[in-house]
Amino acid sequence: MSDFEQRLRRIEDRQAIAELRAHYCHVLDDRNWEELAQLFTADGEFHGLAHVSGRDAILRFFRDTVSTIAEGFWHFCTNATVSLDGDRATGRISMQYLSVKKGVSYVSAGHYDDEMTREGGVWRFRKRKITFYYFAPLSEGFTGRPTYITPEGKPLDPALLAASEAAR
Known about the structure:
Elements: H1 3-29, H2 33-38, E1 40-47, E2 51-53, H3 55-69, E3 72-78, E4 83-85, E5 88-101, E6 104-119, E7 122-137, H4 158-167
Parallel strand pairs: 1-7
Antiparallel strand pairs: 1-2, 3-5, 4-5, 5-6, 6-7
């Protein structure tokens, strides 16, 4: 592959990854759980309010749990970085998340750390991890933290979560 072809391929890869990340926000906000799960590799991982592994578990988590968390939500991502290494890529993207939960408007922000893999010419998430900076009712401003949950939607004990994070 010539230098020009390599540079063109990197540009095309970056564009495909940008579209993957944007498409994630759109299908998530549209609650299209089947399409969202297809954005992950078969052994993909999602680590957000809960940690689930495997495309089927990702589908169940979003369809059965996330769908009940809020009446509506809207994701906005910006400030993306990407490091390419052949058919693998890593990067971070900032996220603002607005939602309505039990009639109350919430605001939150954080970032996603992504590991992506090209499979059969298509970029997919191998791992997507959210770090929240804050989660609070809009009336309270930019304070607070989300409640982390099991894949079934039950709150996790903050002490157990802290111990788990410290062990990593």
